[in-house]
Amino acid sequence: MTDTPLSAPVAKGARRAATLDRIQRALARLLPVLTVIATLVGLWYLACIPMNAQQSLLEAERAGVAITPATAAERRDMGGLALTFGNPGEAVARAYGQERPRLPAPHQVVAELWDTTAGKKITSRRSLVFHAGITLAPTLLGFAIGSLAGILLAIGIVHSRVMDISVMPWAIASQTIPILAIAPMIIVVLNSVGVQGLVPKAIISAYLSFFPVTVGMVKGLRAPSPADLDLMRTWNASGARTLMSLRFPSSLPYLFASLKIAIAAALVGAIIGELPTGAVRGLGARLLAGSYYGQTIQIWSALFGAAIVAALLVATVSWIERVTLRRMGLAR
Amino acid sequence: MSTALILGTWAALWGLNVKLAGHSFGRWAAPVLFGLTLLLLWEMTVRLFDVPTVILPAPTQITVALSENGPTLWADFVQTVLKGALSGWVMGCAAAIATALLVARSDFLRRGLLPVGNFMAALPIVGTAPILVMWYGFGWESKAAVVVVMVFFPVLVNTVAGLGDNSPMQRDLMRTYGATPSQELRYLRLQAALPFIFNGLKIATTLALIGAIVAEFFGSPTVGMGFRISTEVGRLNLPMVWASIVVAALAGSLSYGLIAALEKRLTFWHPSQRARR
Known about the structure:
- The structure holds two protein chains of two kinds.
- Helices cover 78% and strands 0% of the residues of chain A.
- Chain A is mostly helical.
- In chain A, 39% of the residues are buried.
- By secondary structure, chain B is mainly α.
- Chain B has helices spanning 2-22, 26-48, 59-68, 70-104, 107-121, 129-136, 140-163, 168-176, 181-217, 225-234, 238-266, 271-274.
């Protein structure tokens, strides 16, 4: 009879303790990360002062405030730090509100990001979401083509010794080549044949995501132990059957690890692929246009836009990885 | 007719390759033959189908461009690889390893920096090129700066991971020897971290070349591999573009090979190195 009232608070307390424990552990994991990020942001704000000092003091001079080297000509060859220490008040006060700062402050970048994503219609040319979409299409197409080709080549390499010893060294050597250097050539050459738009950029993305997947998949398809492979042989399993039932499942962790590298590489490829076309649309175009017109805030917001897209893409692959591996009972 | 000829050559050489693979010297002969086969097929395709030079130059045309423009290509190499990529690589890797040594002393910092570093290593950092070109001008200094930013995080993450890769047993052993912290760092932690550091350095060599070349697309003096590629593409002088790419590929493979050779000398004890013998 007295059992329930006595034990209930205890169970409740235990559950609360468990929840507290979980929160505490999450905090212990998050706290160092947040500290590092906060430090970096703090350093960024500090760096803005000397980086923007030239412009700050020019504005102060125009506003009629007395500053130590009085003319711009005298200040031209001085370093940002020297200027800041000469006129601490003006340099700090005017560092964070400039139109075209050398180094925009974090809140300026965030404001621009917010303005160009939430503040504009998605179909507008000034919307960063629009430009991200333009870049995303060749990224995903190239990623799909490159990964598929990489998996097929890996299957060939694993099943044919000749392919292994003749193709594999070249696949590895090709990773040491600065592939991005040929991006402008691919774009211009395909343009001269009449192929434009999505396909040339997708080819660069595919090429960049191809080799990580090949190398990772070869490793993964070779991951089954000799004992497992012998077992398949005692069951008289065909090569295709061994591939589907043993090699492919055991290669999945390796595949996902390389897919994460590949999709980040594909995005870089698509961004670089936008540079030589004269830069009209896409994240790479925003970078280039920003650097032509000195719109630093636009460059930084495009850069952070690209970073967010990259993070989302990698997170999506990780999520698929977690779901798939859990379904297959491979999750740790 | 031409298609049949190309396919026939390919089949014949592939058959030879299959034969070669059975021999003991096939390990190096087969890839060489495969490379030569590709070159030969490329040359045949261009000649038999009359592919215009502006689309795909033949290997012989590229070789001619290579030999005729030796001084130009050398100047580009010095500007991009030696001044931009190499100096940036050295500065970036040194800074990353130094930071890692500082970070590894504190567990708090390590747990904070590793996720952030991993995240940064996956980002399209090449995108900082226009900003850094704006800050440091068109010269090689801005290229070196791009390279520093690009190689920093992969090397940092690998070094930090490597410095933590030793067992409590090993650390206890060092303590029983009465090793000072600096001795423990030198004889245990750094040694154990070497395979990881070299992994980071290898990734960094490729990134350094990419960074130096791509940064030149955003502004450069009239010399440099990125400048050469983008201007010669504009003039549709494709053999010269390919010659630059060959130089870039050679520079990339050679620097990777150098690092790999150094790795073999310094980490001969590691299972991945022992297995190869």
